[in-house]
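Predict fold of Probable Fe(2+)-trafficking protein; 96 aa.
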Amino acid sequence: MQIFNPKANLVFCRKYQQNLPKMPNPPFPNAKGQELQNTVSQKAWNEWLELQTMLINEKHLSMMDKDAKKFIAQQRELFLDNGDYERPAGFKPKDS
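Predicted 3D structure, encoded as tokens:
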């Protein structure tokens, strides 16, 4: 019999600095994906995906371009660490 442990489904989110539900799977199949799963909540990741989509669309980025990938990776880290990330025109972060 398996005992449910609610803390097993939580992660201390580096963006929100509190325990929140974790991502069920790593977002990338590598060590970086595992690190993100262990340090970023599902809530923060969903918000990042929304911002990422806006940045790609507004800047007309091709994710086949290595400079575009590098830019998105830098923005992801800034966003998740509450740094000064780039905001698309009219972007308003959701109230936390």
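The radius of gyration is 15 Å.
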